[in-house]
Specification:
This protein is an alpha/beta fold. The chain has twelve helices and twelve strands.
């Protein structure tokens, strides 16, 4: 338990830039079922006081039972008005339930959700926004998509994201810088390694990041479907939207390709200027469209960005359905 508290202090100081003082464990007379489940601490941050509740057995933790226990613990200990749950780790589905209930909790080096301090992770004191463009670079957008789609609340290293997303470590490191300047994510340094997480969850990340996201589509070209290997390309545009919603599929199929793939396609396929029998459209993307393919279509967030400026009521309604 001593290591957990040490990690708590270091983690809060690292990600929030706050000095934290922890006293305890407190000597309190509790029923056996409570004493066997929790160690209690007094936590001070500036003038604020909190009751720290450290889990002894995280594997048996249940949010509903914990809520009942807290009323008894707060009655037994006159330390503070607010409390903080502390654990070495918890399953991701349990964390989501805690966030939904607005329970304050810290999992050192994994996640911090502390509404009473105004931190549903405010990742350390953020740098003043630096030279950040109106829209993220493609690699930065890919990192955000990874956080939206694949994040399991575990911090990801530069090397791990480099391998997963297909960019160089230097490019991913620059993406970290861009995210930090935008105030997105929690970036910590452990030794020589930089780690990124989005502990606020995908819904909050989407709401905060979407203003920086751009359409992934660079160009659109029309070719004959018979001249390409469509089975290797994910559906995109209205074709992908029709697969994911009730929208009727377009007469002309739409696919997504990377620039490298398009170069290969263009060697054997002629560009057709207008729609004709047997034609399809190929979107040429800023980043690899197959990074987060699901059910043969591009990911929903990129799909949304590619169509959000369309002035077609059918598409607008289907996009709302997509993001529900």
């Amino acid at each position: 338990m001593e290591k957990l508290i040490t990690d708590l202090c270091e983690y809060v100081s690292e990600v929030a830039g706050l000095s934290i003082l922890v006293s305890g464990p407190l000597s309190v007379s509790l029923p056996n079922y409570l004493a066997g489940s929790y160690d209690l601490y007094e936590i001070s941050i500036g003038k604020e006081r909190f009751l720290g509740v450290a889990l002894k057995s995280p594997e048996s933790f249940k949010p509903v039972a914990f809520e009942k226990h807290m009323s008894k613990l707060m009655d037994a200990v006159d330390v503070a008005e607010f409390w903080l749950l502390i654990a070495a780790d918890l399953p991701s589905y349990t964390r989501r339930r805690l966030v939904a209930r607005q329970f304050a909790f810290v999992l050192p080096w994994r996640q911090l959700h502390w509404p009473e301090l105004g931190m549903a992770v405010q990742a350390r004191k953020k740098r003043e926004p630096g030279e950040i463009s109106d829209r993220f670079k493609p690699a930065t957008q890919a990192v955000v998509l990874h956080g939206l789609i694949e994040s399991d609340d575990e911090p990801a290293s530069v090397q791990a994201l480099s391998k997963r997303l297909g960019y160089t470590p230097m490019t991913i490191s620059r993406a970290f810088d861009e995210l930090e300047s935008a105030g997105l994510g929690c970036i910590i340094t452990r030794g020589r390694e930089r780690l990124l997480s989005f502990p606020e969850g995908s819904e909050a990340l989407w709401e905060r990041a979407r203003k920086y996201l751009r359409t992934p589509v660079r160009q659109v070209r029309r070719v004959r479907l018979a001249e390409i290997n469509a089975s290797n390309l994910p559906l995109a545009g209205e074709s992908a939207l029709s697969r994911r919603t009730m929208l009727t599929a377009p007469q002309e199929p739409v696919f997504a390709a990377s620039r490298r793939e398009w170069k290969q396609i263009s060697r054997t396929a002629d560009v057709i200027p207008v729609q004709d029998d047997g034609t399809c459209r190929v979107q040429i993307w800023r980043y690899e469209p197959r990074l987060f393919v699901s059910d043969g279509t591009v990911d929903p967030f990129s799909l949304y960005q590619s169509l959000k400026d369309e002035r077609d009521e059918r598409i607008e309604m289907s996009l709302d359905e997509l993001m529900e």
